[in-house]
C-alpha cells in the first residue's frame, strides 16, 4: 500500500487497470478516515476493475452511495477540443476542493489514472511542467493527489521525469506552506527523487518574501545550490534556517550581501538518519 498523507502530491507507476484499482481502494479508505471527499478518475478500460474493488468493501461501497466517493473526470476538465488543458484541469481541482471543504469535509483526495487526463501526444515537457507547477493547489493541504502512470501508456522515461516533478516521490516527501502574503515554509526532504518539484517551487518564490527552511531535514547539493542561486538573484529575499542550513548556503556561494540569512532558534532533526549534504 502506498503511504499517502493529507496534502501529498505523489505519483506512481502502474502496470494496468487492476493495479490502479488496487492502489485506489486503500487511498480512498485513508481519505474517508481523514474526513475528506474522494474523486477517482479511471480510464474507460479501468472502470470495471475499479467498481469491483469499491463494491467489495462495505465502507467504500457506502461512501459511493453517499456521494463521498465520486468516480469520473468532470466534463469541464477537458479542453474545448478534448485535448489536455493544464490550466483548466487545475481550475477543476481547485473548485472541487473548495466545494468539498465548503461541504464540511477536510478536503479532497484525488486518485487519477493519468491516461484519462493526458492524451498520448502531449509533450513530456508539458506534462512535467503541469505536475511541478501545480504546487499552489497543495499549499493548504486540503487537496491530496495520487497520479498513477500506466507503463502501457507512458514510456518509462516519461514516468520517471513526471515522478520527479512531484513533491512526494517514494520515501521522499517535500511540503510547503504559503503563509500570509509573503512567507513560505518548506519542510521535509529533497533530492533527485523530487528535484524538479523543488526547482519549480523555489523558482516561484518572489523577491521580498521570507523562506523558512528550518524544517527541511535533508537537502542534497543540488537543492542547496538552487536555493542559493535564487536567493542571490533576489536581494530582498530572507532565508530562515538552522546553523547548518546557513553554513551550507554560504558554502554554495550565497554572499551575505546577496540576501538575508537568518538562523532560527529551532533545529531541524532528521527522520531518516541522514546528515545534510554539503555541496561538492
**Relative helix content:** 25-40%
Q: By helix and strand content, what is the structural category? A: alpha/beta
CATH class membership of the largest domain: Alpha Beta
Strand order of the largest sheet: 6-7-8-9-10-11
Description:
The strands form two sheets. A six-stranded mixed beta sheet has the order 6-7-8-9-10-11. Strands 1-5-4-2-3 form a five-stranded parallel beta sheet, with helices on both faces. Residues 268-280 have low confidence and may be disordered. The chain has helices at residues 17-33, 47-55, 58-66, 86-102, 114-117, 124-132, 156-164, 195-203, 221-233, 243-251; strands spanning 9-14, 37-41, 69-71, 108-113, 143-150, 168-169, 172-179, 183-190, 210-219, 238-241, 260-263. 41% of the residues are buried. The protein has ten helices and eleven strands. The chain starts with 8 loop residues before the first strand and ends in a 17-residue tail after the last strand. The protein is α/β, with parallel strands linked by helices and 280 residues long. It has two domains: 9-170, P-loop containing nucleotide triphosphate hydrolases (Rossmann fold); 174-263, STAS domain (Transcription Regulator spoIIAA, 2-Layer Sandwich), CATH 3.30.750. α6 packs across α8.
What attributes characterize this protein structure?
alpha/beta, Rossmann fold, Transcription Regulator spoIIAA, 2 domains, six-stranded mixed β-sheet, disordered C terminus
Amino acid at each position: 500500500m502506498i503511504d499517502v498523507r493529507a496534502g501529498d502530491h505523489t505519483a506512481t507507476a502502474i502496470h494496468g487497470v487492476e493495479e490502479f484499482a488496487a492502489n485506489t481502494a486503500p487511498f480512498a479508505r485513508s481519505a474517508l478516515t481523514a474526513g475528506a471527499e474522494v474523486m477517482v478518475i479511471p480510464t474507460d478500460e479501468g472502470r470495471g476493475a475499479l467498481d469491483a474493488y469499491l463494491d467489495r468493501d462495505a465502507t467504500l461501497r457506502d461512501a459511493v452511495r453517499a456521494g463521498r466517493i465520486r468516480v469520473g473526470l468532470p466534463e469541464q476538465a477537458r479542453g474545448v477540443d478534448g485535448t489536455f488543458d493544464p490550466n483548466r484541469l487545475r481550475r477543476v481541482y481547485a473548485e472541487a476542493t473548495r466545494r468539498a471543504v465548503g461541504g464540511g469535509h477536510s478536503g479532497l483526495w484525488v486518485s487519477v489514472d493519468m491516461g484519462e487526463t493526458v492524451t498520448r501526444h502531449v509533450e513530456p515537457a508539458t506534462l512535467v511542467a503541469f505536475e511541478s507547477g501545480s504546487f499552489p493547489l497543495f499549499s493548504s493541504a486540503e487537496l491530496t493527489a495520487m497520479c498513477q502512470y500506466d507503463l502501457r501508456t507512458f514510456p518509462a522515461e516519461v514516468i520517471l521525469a513526471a515522478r520527479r516533478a512531484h513533491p512526494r516521490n517514494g520515501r521522499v516527501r517535500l511540503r510547503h506552506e504559503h503563509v500570509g502574503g509573503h512567507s513560505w515554509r518548506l519542510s521535509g526532504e529533497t533530492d533527485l527523487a523530487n528535484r524538479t518539484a523543488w526547482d519549480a517551487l523555489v523558482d516561484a518564490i518572489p523577491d521580498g518574501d521570507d523562506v523558512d527552511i528550518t524544517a527541511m531535514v535533508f537537502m542534497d547539493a543540488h537543492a542547496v545550490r538552487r536555493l542559493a542561486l535564487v536567493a542571490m538573484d533576489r536581494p530582498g529575499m530572507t532565508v530562515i534556517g538552522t546553523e547548518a542550513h546557513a553554513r551550507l548556503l554560504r558554502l554554495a556561494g550565497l554572499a551575505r550581501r546577496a540576501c538575508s540569512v537568518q538562523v532560527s532558534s529551532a533545529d531541524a532533526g532528521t527522520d531518516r538518519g541522514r546528515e545534510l549534504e554539503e555541496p561538492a
